[in-house]
């Protein structure tokens, strides 16, 4: 069983399906993945954003596998006049750390379910923008996601939360993808100030050297931190000559980064060459971002510590477009 720090949002994982372990309405001789509803991904690019309801208001939230905690933006908490209390809860991201308050939500609706009277972290970052006409409200983080199998079908802009019933943990899940799939094992992050044990840490090979990266759907693009870039042979002089972009995170402060072309990157059995990736001077881990997830169908099984990824005849690498801002889709408590 996955170990992690659980906030009030994690209670939602059981209630939405009435899916506690003692409630199993499915035949015991069949492995069943039960969904709380297939949801449309509102964003055509970048981090996946889904529609939800917050105290009866239609809003949008990012699905963020790199965030430790589910959270609301400060602007939404103020707009809906949610009761808030200060706390000593410290959140951090690629642009620093900050103390966060807590807000009480009377009703949060996701898919076909809802839960009442929960408490979520309120981040300092303001999110004064809309997606598909819905105000951005915050994100679902690891405290919520690890209760599910999380299914991304971003090529078709679909997303689902699943719960497994009668599925042996020692057997892979075959989703019937016509090109087959490969399995990418992952490790749980180490416990730390930001609840890192909820993160998905995977091995990647860049320029022939192995590093680890966090699978982060909340990161608009794949990012290599400066220490890892140096270990891969990238010099400060090379970065100074690279294209400059801005990245942002939990504090909402822009930070200058660079887009550097790496000779190769290997993710599982997939091999890509001449790949541009963002390099940032940050204490955060390197991130495999939404640019990779966008080109694949995948099921993240926290129960198994495995990612099932559809094989492609012509897979696409993470490839940020030069000249575009490299900010994350929303505030991400790391």
UniProtKB/TrEMBL annotation:
List every stretch annotated Disordered. 313-334
- CDD domains assigned to the protein according to its UniProt record, in alphabetical order: retropepsin_like_bacteria
Asked if the record carries the keyword Protease, the reply is yes
Quick check: keyword Protease in the entry? yes
Compositionally biased region (Low complexity): 321-334
Record domain Peptidase A2: where: 211-292
Which positions, given as ranges, span the membrane?
none
Q: Which domain of life is it from?
A: Bacteria
Please provide the record's keywords in A-Z order.
Aspartyl protease, Hydrolase, Protease
Instruction: Please name the GO terms of the biological process aspect recorded for this protein, alphabetically.
Output: proteolysis
> A GO molecular function for this record?
aspartic-type endopeptidase activity
Which family is annotated? Belongs to the DDI1 family.
Protein's UniProt name: Clan AA aspartic protease (TIGR02281 family)
Q: What is the source species? A: Endobacter medicaginis
């Amino acid at each position: 069983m996955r170990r992690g720090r659980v906030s009030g949002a994690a209670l939602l994982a059981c209630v939405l399906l009435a899916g506690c372990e003692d409630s199993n309405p499915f035949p015991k001789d069949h492995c069943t993945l039960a969904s709380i509803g297939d949801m449309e991904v509102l964003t055509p690019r970048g981090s996946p954003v889904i529609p939800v309801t917050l105290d009866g208001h239609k809003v949008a939230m990012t699905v963020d596998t790199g965030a430790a905690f589910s959270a609301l933006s400060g602007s939404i908490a103020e707009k809906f006049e949610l009761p808030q209390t200060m706390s000593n809860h410290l959140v951090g991201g690629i642009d620093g750390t900050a103390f966060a308050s807590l807000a009480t939500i009377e009703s949060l609706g996701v898919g076909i379910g809802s839960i009442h009277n929960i408490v979520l972290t309120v981040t300092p970052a303001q999110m004064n923008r809309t997606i598909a006409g819905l105000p951005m409200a915050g994100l679902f983080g690891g405290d919520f996601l690890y209760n599910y199998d999380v299914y991304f079908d971003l090529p078709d802009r679909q997303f689902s939360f699943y719960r497994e019933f009668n599925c042996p943990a020692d057997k892979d899940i075959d989703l019937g993808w016509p090109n087959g799939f490969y399995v990418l094992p992952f490790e749980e992050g180490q416990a730390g100030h930001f609840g890192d044990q909820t993160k998905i840490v995977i091995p990647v090979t860049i320029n022939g050297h192995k590093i680890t990266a966090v699978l982060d759907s909340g990161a608009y693009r794949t990012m290599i931190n400066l220490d890892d870039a140096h270990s891969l042979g990238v010099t400060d002089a090379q970065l100074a000559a690279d294209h400059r972009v801005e990245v942002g995170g939990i504090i909402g402060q822009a930070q200058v980064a660079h887009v550097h072309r790496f000779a190769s990157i290997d993710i599982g059995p997939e091999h890509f060459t001449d790949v541009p990736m963002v390099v940032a001077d940050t204490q955060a881990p390197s991130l495999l971002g939404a640019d990779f997830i966008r080109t694949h169908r995948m099921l993240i099984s926290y129960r198994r510590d495995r990612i099932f990824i559809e094989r492609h005849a012509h897979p696409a690498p993470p490839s940020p477009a030069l000249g575009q801002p490299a900010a994350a889709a929303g505030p991400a408590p790391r």
